[in-house]
Amino acid sequence: MYQSKFPSGCRMRITKSLKLSFILGVLFAFHLTCSSDFGEPGELGSISFDIIFNNDSSQSSKQSHDLIDQVKDVINITKAQSVSSDITGLTITIPDVDTVDIIIIWDGSPVQTVSETIDGVPVGQQTIRVDLKNMAGTILYTQTQTVQVLSGETSSPSFSAEDFIPQNQFIDLISPNGGELWEIGSGQDIEWNSYDTHSNLRVHIFIQALLQPIAQLIAENELNNGLYRWDISSALLPGTNYRVKIQLTDDVSVYDESDGYLTLWSPPTSITLTSPNGGEVWLLDSTYNITWTSDSPNANVFIHLYKNGNFDYAISWANIGGFTGAPTTNDGIYSWTIQQYTAGGTVADYNFYPGTDYKVKISYELYPDIFDESDDNFTIEEEFNSGREIIVTSPNGGENWERGSVHDITWIRDEFDSTNRVTIELYKDTLGGEFYQTIVDYMDVSGGDGNYNWWIDTTFCCGNKFKIKVSDFDNLIYYDFSDSTFTISLD
Length: 491
Fold this sequence. Notes:
Elements: E1 44-52, E2 61-64, E3 73-77, E4 89-94, E5 97-106, E6 111-122, E7 124-133, E8 139-149, E9 154-155, E10 165-166, E11 171-175, E12 181-183, E13 187-194, E14 202-209, E15 216-223, E16 227-231, E17 239-248, E18 255-257, E19 262-265, E20 271-275, E21 281-283, E22 287-294, E23 301-307, E24 310-314, E25 333-337, E26 355-364, E27 371-373, E28 378-381, E29 390-394, E30 400-402, E31 406-413, E32 421-428, E33 434-444, E34 450-455, E35 463-472, E36 479-481, E37 486-489
Parallel strand pairs: 1-9, 2-6, 3-5, 12-19, 21-28, 30-37
Antiparallel strand pairs: 1-6, 4-5, 4-7, 7-8, 8-10, 11-13, 13-16, 14-15, 14-17, 17-18, 17-19, 20-22, 22-25, 23-24, 23-26, 26-27, 26-28, 29-31, 31-34, 32-33, 32-35, 35-36, 35-37
């Protein structure tokens, strides 16, 4: 839009002068002409310009017109294949002449070339600026030239594409932007926004780990189309502190990088359950740690409970019925409260029954064929129902202890007092069980739970039918045996 202030007798006219090659593969021809050779003050010249939107002049149609509406001039053009649709307006600024704004509407009109003439330009050297804008009015490119305007004549400077200077450039990285977990060897999308996605603009993409001195090039001279599919190289090391950086190839000062760190991790190959792994005695309505080790700490895992070899319960779950389960983070520990069902209760979610045939299975969420389970059964017992009750927890069946080695005999009890003394004995489970020897006649225990480091003499006779009995020294009605037999073998 522009409004020129012309003295009486001046008029606008259409001329066919130079053609200006514009940016981004589009031919914008501006013929800006001026007049006067430093004429007298008040003398005027003209500037004429053409705008061409097609590289092939043989296929272009041309429309010329006078500016009837002094407030708004709208030019309709046909969208060429190489034209960026981000370009929606042109602004021409000439000193002492109202600014000319041209609105570009991509509506399928056959108009491909537009010519305009601006009369009434003061003679002498004039600085002319041409700005290219987007829909928001942001200047994307600009070019400035000094033109000599002669009195009564038309000057025709050429504004070539390569002389336009980019303005207000930016790149905004969308993904990865921090917190992502990407598997090495997988394909992932790197996404970004920029001020212009024209094919003439290119980007470099890098990845760099914290404290890594040199960034690694992911992609070079890629199209600035906002999306790049990255096949993550197996040469990259797993890590939790990577960032991605993207920058313009022609202006490295225009860039963006991930706001936070992303994690690259390798596909898992193994996982090992360490507890419960057989022989443990866990009480209902108590909390215990399920523990494991793995070679892929960033891959989520499922934790399931099995009873007598059959799936019984999804330990890691999130209000989905306790059957399929939800994954938990692979941090090597999961705190599990074994809730006993109580009618009308608000915290109990599942009815666990006491038993000696439980196992835990742990597997990767995305790799279910990689798993581990308890080597042997463990026991879930009811909570204590009588004072001073004792439960042997180790050895509790299946262990193989060598002569000459030291092992912990452990037990738990619900109540104790100042006379908390126990006797530890060894039994051989033949003919219903028979006393074999006393390990400790009596020992004081500071606290309800007990532990005794037993050194197995090298002269001890071997066998696979042994059980441990722990009893209250002062009240023999309170005692417990190992649930199953364990083995004492040669050293």
